[in-house]
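Lab manual, section 2.4: Encoding a predicted structure.

Procedure: take the sequence of the chain (444 residues), apply the prediction step described in section 2.3, and record the output as structure tokens. A sample record is shown.
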Amino acid sequence: MTTLCSFLLTGYSQTGEAVTNSFRAVWMNLTGGIAFTGALIYLSLIDPAADLLFLPNLLAYGNVAVITIPLALLALAGLTKAAQLPFSTWLTGAMVAPTPVSALLHSSTMVKAGVFLLIVLAPLFHQTWVGIALAFVGAFTFLATSALAIAQSNAKRVLAYSTIANLGLIVACVGIGTPEAITAAILLTIFHAVAKCLLFLCVGAVEHKIGSRDIEDMDALLVRQPLLATMMVVGIAGMYLAPFGMLISKWATVEAFLSAPLGFIFIAVLAFGSALTVFYWTKWLGKLFMRMAKPKEKRQRLNFSEGFSVSVIGILTIIASAGFPLITKYVIAPFSGEAIGSGLFAIDTIALCGLMLIILLLLLAASAAGVKSGGRIVPPYLNGRAVNSEGMFSGSLGVYKEPKTSNYYLEEYVGEKKLLKPSQIIALVIIVAMFVLGILGVLL
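Recorded output:
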């Protein structure tokens, strides 16, 4: 059903690009659907008396080695639905869909169905080499797509690659499959869903107001659209700044990786991938606050439905971050069987996170309140170059030019043309190795 909805809504505009991308989403997800069906048939034939299609029976099945092939098939189904490499292009292509579709299907619902399936099966992955291979697929996807996000100036493509990357981190935790790793995976799933849904809706509302989803066109959005920009800051902060949930989840992920097989590799991938996420989130965040001159557009009134929706989800993002100890204790621990180490939820840690959250919210409120009169104009510093009364500087041959700033996108190093194909090949090799390990698990 999610595949059908994605197909119809991705092709909504009926342009050539939209139709092509909608069919790509169909065939990639149907590949996972075939794998899923194959796994069900396989499980029904292995031991009919055990009724392995009943999930509690499957999780309690003693001879895990016998079911490594269906586990590999189920892993493939989860990877396609979660848009992991080499299947990521269906999700980036689906960004042509209307932005509310991206917020619902492509950040909070459809792709989460893939990791939901894998999280449920995580205790079985923990006992097999199929799980280790699955963890490597997720870890590599996290690293590669975090790099690919740097080269994107289209805000929705940044969000798409960020979504794929964070789902990759969840998959890595699932492949490890320990109680701590499962807890980290569920935390990542919850916090990513609310923050990314908020960001997609904000980008859609911004596009309505300024006619562009390019990050370079979002200069001084805090002046032009204070509420919208404030909620966008909350969403971006929710993805990578303390004390919001994604950073707490990554902290939990580090603790899970410490006890994992080859854990030092996963921790290194997490460190480098997280450094890349800091790069692309920070340069976007800077654009919201910075401006070189007065914005050309007058401040526009935000539609009530847009303001209401982003405010509600922004508040949910804050509540989820503030309530992470309760979420872990009452929602996650009963499933995973174990909470994250006591150090993460010590009283002083919770108090520190709460204080940081309050300070950040006060700063955001003060920033939004302080721009009611249009903000403060600071002339650009041009290292002594001649500047006229309109802020234009003297360039070559005495021609006056408007000073502009732009982010770095490093397309020659991490652009799609440079990085995407090799990343897909490497991920495909790891998936093939996962199936080989599954077959060996049965034979040996």
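Check your result against the sample. The chain has one domain: 2-376+428-443.
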